[in-house]
Amino acid sequence: MTELSPTGRSTVHRGKKRAGTDRTDLHSILDEGVICHLGMQVDGSPRVLPTAFARLGETLYLHGSTGARSLREGIEEAEVCASVTLLDGIVYSRSAFHHSANYRSAVIHGRPREVSAPEEKWQALRAVTEHLAPGSWEHARQPDRRELAATAVLALSLDEASVKIRTGGPGDDEEDIAAGDAWAGVLPLHSSWGEPEPSPDLADGFPVPEHVRARQ
Amino acid sequence: MTELSPTGRSTVHRGKKRAGTDRTDLHSILDEGVICHLGMQVDGSPRVLPTAFARLGETLYLHGSTGARSLREGIEEAEVCASVTLLDGIVYSRSAFHHSANYRSAVIHGRPREVSAPEEKWQALRAVTEHLAPGSWEHARQPDRRELAATAVLALSLDEASVKIRTGGPGDDEEDIAAGDAWAGVLPLHSSWGEPEPSPDLADGFPVPEHVRARQ
C-alpha cells in the first residue's frame, strides 16, 4: 500500500500540485517530526496541543498522562486531527505576495482508540520513547506497573491522511522577473542537536552514551 | 498589561508549575515561532493546518488565500485555536517514564474576524511578510490591488491565551538517581538558517541582500 486514500476532509483542496499521494512520504514526515499538534473539540471549541507520538506501521500512537484533560476527552472515540509539519525553508520572491515556505506537512483524521492490551501498550510506549529519544528504551529503566497505569496511549489509524509538500524556488510573475529589482531564492532552515547537557545530579565523569552523543 | 487572563479553556490543567503567566513570554513565543498550527472545526471534525501569521500588539494576524477552505470557514466567526510551539530540547531521564521535552508553547483561543479595513489589512500583510521574511516588505514589490483582493487576513485577539514552558533537567525518582545506572540530561535542539539558494532565474551575480544573508 503506497497510495494515500483521501476522503473529502483529507483531500487537499488548495495547491493540488503540492499534494503528495505516496504513503512513503507520509511515513517519512511522521518519522522525522519530533512532536505533533493534536486538535480536538473540547466544550464546543477547538483545542490544539503539542503532543508526543510515534508511528508503528499504519498506526500513530499518541502519548499522555491519564490525568490530562486532552487525553481523557480524546479517549472518548471523538474525532481528532493530528498534524506534523517540517519547515524546510523560506521562499523569498520578487513580490511580497509570492513569498512562501518550503515544508512537508502530514495531516491525519480519525477517531482514536485507547490502547489497553498490555503488549500493544508496551510496544507503543517503547515506540514513543524511542521516537523522542532513540536508544533510551534499552538504556533507561523501563516502566513499572504503576507508571504503566499512569500513562494513557491513544492509537490513531493512518487510513485517512493527507500529505502536502512544497519544494523549490519562488513562482514569480514574469513582469517581476523581467524587472530584476529584487533577490529571489530560498533560505533553508535546519534543525540540529546541540551539546548534551548532563543533569547536575549525575555522577562526575558519567560518560555521555553513544545514543545521545551521536544523535543525528 | 503583563498578566495573562486565563479562562477555563485557557487555564493550564496539567503541570501547573509549567504554566506561564507573563504576557512577555506569550509575545516572545509568538514572535520567535515561524508558523502556527491553526485548529478549527470543519463539518463536525477538527482540522489542524500549518499557517503563516504575525503578531501586532495584542492581535494575531493569520494569513491565507481567499480561496482556501480553512480561511473561508474560519472567517465565519467560528471558534479557532492557534498553537505555536518551540521545541528546545529532549530531556533524557534515568527512567523511560520521566523522559520529556523542553519547550515553549503558546495557545490562543477565540473567534477571529476578517480584516477588511484597507489600512489594517495592509499593516497585517506587512507584518505577516516581515514575520516570514524580515526585510522583504521593503525589498520586494508590495502587493497590488488584485493581490490584496486575493489575500484573506484574519485577526485573532490575544485576550484568551495560555503559555506553557518547560526548562531544565529531568525530574528523576530518588531510587533511579541512587542506582546510577543511566545517563540523564538534556539534548538541546537548535534551528539555524542555511546558505541562501538563489533562484535559477535570477541574473548572474545578483547579490544576496543583507536581510537574507544576515538573518539570525
Automatic annotation (TrEMBL), chains A, B:
<dbReference type="InterPro" id="IPR024747">
    <property type="entry name" value="Pyridox_Oxase-rel"/>
</dbReference>
<feature type="compositionally biased region" description="Polar residues">
    <location>
        <begin position="1"/>
        <end position="10"/>
    </location>
</feature>
<protein>
    <recommendedName>
        <fullName>Flavin-nucleotide-binding protein</fullName>
    </recommendedName>
</protein>
<feature type="region of interest" description="Disordered">
    <location>
        <begin position="189"/>
        <end position="216"/>
    </location>
</feature>
<dbReference type="InterPro" id="IPR012349">
    <property type="entry name" value="Split_barrel_FMN-bd"/>
</dbReference>
<feature type="region of interest" description="Disordered">
    <location>
        <begin position="1"/>
        <end position="23"/>
    </location>
</feature>
<dbReference type="Pfam" id="PF12900">
    <property type="entry name" value="Pyridox_ox_2"/>
</dbReference>
